Amino acid sequence: MKRPLEGIRVVECGVFHAGPGGSAILGDLGAEVIKVEQPGVGDPIRAAKMIGRIPFEIPGDRTLFCEGANRNKKSVTVDLKKEKGRDIVYELVRQADVFLTNLRRPAVESLRISYREIREVNPEIIYAGVSAFGPKGPDRDRGGFDYQGQARSGFMFSVGEEGAPPVVSQFGIIDQATAIMASHQIITALFMRERTGRGQEVHVSILGSATFLLYFNVLTAQLGRFEVPRHTRSTEYPLRNYYRCGDDRWIMMTLTPPERHWAPLCKAIGRPDLERDGRFWPLTKLQENGQELTRILDEVFLTRPRDEWLDIFAGHDLFGCAVHRLTDLADDPQILENGYLVDFEHPTLGPVKIPGYPVHFGEARAGTVSAAPDLGQHTEEVLSGLLGYDADEIEKLRSEGVI
Q1: Is a pLDDT exceeding 90 seen at residue 265?
Q2: Stretch 277-306: mean pLDDT
Q3: Residue 353, CB-side half-sphere exposure with 13 Å CA sphere
Q4: Would you state the pLDDT for residue 223?
Q5: pTM score > 0.85 for this model?
Q6: Distance (Å, rounded) from C-alpha 141 to C-alpha 136?
Q7: 3-state SS of 142-155?
Q8: What is the DSSP letter of 272?
Q9: Cα separation of 145 and 155, whole Å?
């Protein structure tokens, strides 16, 4: 089967994940992605073997973070500070459909890879810029990472329990949302170019992506003039909550509207007496006496293991599922059969499972085809095969420190 973006070529001058992750997704869809890196140094993500207390180093002098951000790519080392290096990038741009960078504006202008310069080389290019806080405003040139997106968007006050301090989630969530948003905008601009023949600049930011991810939370705050309460398990609406089961694993249920689910739930848990219990009937009292019902359900769910409860829920068509740890995903048949985790042959780790592309195409295929490249792995291949440089020219560029 064909891949949706076969024939599309992307040139990337990016670092870390929020930008490069977007072109990695385009690679999942079949685009050819050429990553331009500084000779001898490369994307700083290659050296990120430890972030805080999280170890990322894997065999082969590789890092987990780099693997995710740079799958499906070809690495070409070019010194953009040298005129001949910029000329090579401009030659690549002439034959490209997309140029992506998440370097900050002063660096982009200093290296002469702004939209203005890139458009002069290829007027039909889709130029994707990715920043921390957006292309306008007082902070447009400030740097930032995932945590700044979580903080400034309100995300940190949207998780955790009421009354707790702001909670930072595991790293990478907003970076990945930004990467998804970047790929979405690029594909939209490519579609527009197909219809109009016009290239254009698109811009995505970590802050904008985080805010859009919180769309309904932000909408509520602006239109309703209140913040959605943080989820506090002990006092939460009891039919929209999570419970510990007898094997110390958890189940999450969302049983709304109660008119449909309350009676079946009472039967499923073996407590038909609760259905017309004056504490919970009429159903408006479920919230009023929610803390008491949560206490009862806590006791009930502890009487059986989680998978037994899941079978019972399925038999009564009640909406519930397991609360997984990330390490549980590889044992979930629903995850595996839908290709949300797929088998992959890694060059240094051997057979592993990695996240699969989460969309199914009827007439195409998508997903990771290659691991992150070694630094400069494809320099000669791209210069000779795509740009027509001969061996002597390549050696001269190498001796001059251009590549």
Answers
A1: yes
A2: 97
A3: 14
A4: 97
A5: yes
A6: 9
A7: CCCCHHHHHHHHCH
A8: G
A9: 14
